[in-house]
Design brief:
Order of helices and strands: HHHHEEHH
Structural class: mainly alpha
Strand content: under 5%
Number of domains: 1
Bound molecules: protoporphyrin IX containing FE
Largest sheet: 2 strands, antiparallel
Strand order of the largest sheet: 1-2
Mean pLDDT: 92
């Protein structure tokens, strides 16, 4: 007869669902793109038309990231997920805290970005990959624009710090504890 905890472990998947895995890595790549594109986009020495195109690209990719994160959160509450790898309760709490902060950052970045674009003194429409115009939730507002500009910039820096902690934790799991944590966030047949 299996104990309750053992029964739970047997019925739990040993890795993340392939859809969550795909969304995790796609989001990661798109975030890298966002940081990269913000360089030429903000470069005042560049041609204005080219910068306008890069702004539109940055906004469209950012909104795509928001949709991916929402989808990932829906999957997180609807699908069963692997048991936390850490056995130490403090490490479990620390991992949960960093994961929650990462989610918060990647939700707040697109929201602050859209509010910044909407509240900007010079009104430029947000065109989603040139397909349709995204409605702006608010109109021009210098105070909100300044606050969102500040927030968007700070959130970008916070994401770099949290992302580095996250990658360092994965490195400790892989290189020191050798528990194969990275394999849980990759495709395979062990998702039950
Ligand atoms: C996860 C998604 C996003 C990431 C990681 C991201 C990251 C960044 C970074 C690193 C910068 C340059 C740093 C700075 O603010 O000075 C930037 C600037 C900017 N972002 Fe985003 N962004 C995201 C989503 C969005 C979205 C959805 C919008 C609008 C719909 C947006 C609008 C802007 C604008 C207008 C700027 C230029 C700010 C300025 O004039 O200095 N961003 N973003
Ligand atoms: C900005 C980039 C990244 C963000 C925003 C991010 C975000 C997240 C979040 C929120 C989770 C928790 C999943 C959940 O509980 O629903 C997670 C899990 C994970 N991430 Fe990332 N991640 C990023 C980059 C990376 C990179 C570069 C690696 C590899 C070195 C990585 C490896 C993992 C692994 C292995 C897990 C699963 C942990 C476990 O099963 O307990 N992530 N990531």
């Amino acid at each position: 007869m299996l104990s309750r905890r053992a029964r739970r472990r047997v019925s739990e998947p040993t890795r993340w669902h392939p859809a969550s895995v795909a969304l995790h890595w796609l989001t990661f790549l798109l975030i890298l793109f966002q940081f990269w594109v913000s360089g030429p986009m903000l470069d005042e020495k560049r041609d204005l038309i080219a910068r306008f195109e890069l702004y539109q690209l940055h906004k469209s990719v950012g909104l795509t990231i928001a949709a991916f994160v929402l989808l990932r959160l829906v999957l997180r509450v609807t699908l069963s997920q692997p048991d936390p790898e850490n056995q130490n309760p403090w490490l479990r709490r620390a991992a949960a805290l960093v994961h929650a902060a990462l989610y918060l950052c990647i939700v707040a970045l697109p929201i602050s970005g859209l509010l910044m674009a909407a509240a900007a003194p010079i009104q430029i429409p947000t065109l989603y990959f040139g397909l349709f115009q995204v409605p702006h939730p608010i109109g021009p507002n210098p105070a909100i624009y300044q606050r969102m500009l500040w927030l968007h910039d700070r959130l970008g820096n916070i994401l770099i710090v949290l992302g580095s902690v996250h990658v360092a934790a994965v490195a400790v799991h892989m290189l020191l504890w050798r528990d194969g944590l990275l394999g849980r966030m990759w495709f395979g047949r062990r998702w039950l």
